[in-house]
Amino acid sequence: MLNLSNALTIGLPLVLTPTVIGLTLLGTFIGLVVGSLPGLTATMAVAIMIPLTYSMTPQESFALLVPSYAAATFGGSVGAILINIPGTGAAIMTTIDGYAMRKNGEAGRAIGLAIAASLVGGLVSALFLATFAPVAARWALRLGAHEYFAVALFGLGFVAYISPSLLKGLLAGALGLLLGCVGNDPVGAYPRFTFDHASLIGGMTFVPVMIGLFGLSEVFVALEGDLSARDVARQQIHGIARSFWEALRMWPTMIRSTVIGLLIGVMPGVGPTIAAALGYGIEKRLGRNREAMGTGAPEGIVAPETANNAGTGGELAVTMAFGIPGDAVTAVMMGAFLIHGLKPGPTLFVSNPDVVSAIFLLFIAGNLLFAVLGIASLRFLVKLLETPPRYLMPIVIVLCVVGAYAASNSVFDVWVLIVFGVVGYVMRKIDMPIAPMVLGFILGPLIEDNLRRALVLDDGWPIGFLTRPVSAVLIGLTVLLFLSPVLGRFAGRKQ
Amino acid sequence: MKPVLTATICAFMLACPDAGHAQKYPAQSVRIVVPFAPGGATDIIARMVAARLSTRLGQTFVVENRGGGSGIPGTVAVQQARPDGYTLLLSGNGPHATNVALYEKLPYDPLKDFTQISLTGLLPLVLNVNPKAPFRTLPEFVQWAKANPGKMNYGSPGAGSPPHLAMEMLAQSHGLDMVHIPYKGSAPAITDLVAGHIPAMFDNVLASLSNIQSGTIVALGVTTSQRVAALPAVPTFREAGVGDFEASTWTLLTAPAGTPSTIVEQLSAEVRLIFSDPEIQQRLQQQGVVPTVSTPEQTQAFVASEIEKWTQVARKARVQPLDR
Known about the structure:
Largest sheet of chain B: 5 strands, mixed
Number of domains of chain B: 2
Largest sheet of chain A: 2 strands, antiparallel
Oligomer: heterodimer
CATH topology of the largest domain in chain B: D-Maltodextrin-Binding Protein, domain 2
Helix content of chain A: over 70%
Structural class of chain B: alpha/beta
Largest interface: A-B, 53 and 56 residues
């Protein structure tokens, strides 16, 4: 089995070669750039680089891929903070307080917080990957359809809390759920809302919907204003050390979010977006500074950014330990394993301890490097904000279109992008929050799929949700979550 | 004189690229569309074939994943592409055979809209069970299912997928009553099989291999006429004494109908050459793929017979067209 000292003795000699070090730097840089640009996701970063790795040794190819995964997960927050467009799905929650801080002239502080939070989440998950990968994967295996349903429902419970207006938040969430119904139904494969269109059979693709709602709509809003105007908010840049210190002082937030990230990370198919949403939502319920969240509170960045990066190690752990990819990125990465003749699965840790050790070290290196690169480019990134919109916005449009197309190489998805750009614009105009809609869209299929599977497994009886401890606890928490505003009001009236 | 000469040269140059095309293929990079998400068996084979074709033909063959929707969107994208040999499809028996049985309004015809190039490997199915399940052999499995009608749950990567139909085929031939639990793809289904949430499922050998080898799932039988090299200890269905049962899935390289026959022949010959390399053969066999290739004509005939076969299975299993 893999442990820390083992990893160092077997892994270090493999990793400390000039080629591997160079590739690690390159991978981190590419991940950071691709992650921070709207429309280009971590999956794309990895998928684009895989063909380059055909002729490399396994450790060389993972030097390119693994750090880019970690860096892209952090990179998403840069776009979210600077231009209100999340670079990846995992950074959706970061737009809320991140962009608010940037409007207050605190973009530098916000990015600093995101770097610190991502670094801590990523490093803790790396240690977790090294120590508990097989154990955690085995634990995750015991979770079935019932538990996945309960987790997704719990996530849905937070949709209301991440919106300033309860009604509009719920409405947006419901619209998202409806969108998630498009495509073949998960049990009978009966086509729903597909209008006999081949491209809709598999449902809406996530990337074009997300970047339409967040990215293109932002461009439309900018078009209303003076395109030649420079940014009004003067951005202050204070010492990066202060941001780190500030983030570390929020250790209760970090611990909560790290635990959430790790738990969600080892559950295949749930993904970093939901980890970030739960991190944010729980912070908004329990955090000390919950009242300020939504208006530029530092916790609004630290909570989701810790959670999404804490998930990365868990996802890698499950992919390697059971050959079961947790999300699109790790699915692509699994292809890389197979191309090099490595079989992810329980035997990998025994048959290729060298590769596993190397991956672990590369993952840590990636986390440290994105922090260094992030700090180094902080000033430049903030300066970028002084670009007048007439130069910035066309670039954003191009990136959105490229990203929508590249997600599955489909022109249809460019139309999806445009439609959802308009939808997002209308939503912004009527002050309807976008994040709940995207969450509903991700959670809907997860809920439906697992609910129906659980019911088939139990001959149609829903009692299984309450007799299994994990799902019972989660459903109990969800009920509490839904009732708490009502109960709170009731208690208030009594007084 | 000069303008005339210039015009002639210009006209000649304009005509040239086409002539160049006819002489040398490929003159630019080639797309190979895979109608599935990355990481699966078809994708792995596609990437391997693309890498070899790139080195052999001196142009990049790029694998493009267009997953989802039972492979229909990806297949349609190639059907509508220009038939010039620069857009190819590396697909499998889902989009190219079973969909014909499952969708009444399938927007393409695998036989008429495509020119088949070559098979690129058979993927035998294997019946896997959870180690704690009360059956360790194929006859025990059949007996248990027979004694407990409606109690045997089985997973599949999706409604209408070959593993689903294969189990229906088995149920039909032995009069079994089992409950189908569809998943979204192979990975989550295997997860639940390993965890014991479902006791049994068919899947291709490639997807099951690492879990079989580590003992987290048990392979009862393979659906080929001969044992599979990667699983020498696992009997075929006939050997295990539960009747004739052959249901392999497969992958093929194909192109939009109307692709010049010289290009189709050239690619088919290249694929056959690539697969004759012992190193490739060994690598595929280790992963549970049976290296199988064919000429364009053989491939066309094979696809036709497979469509016929799976349509009958679906009909026997009373799987309704999904879009009626």
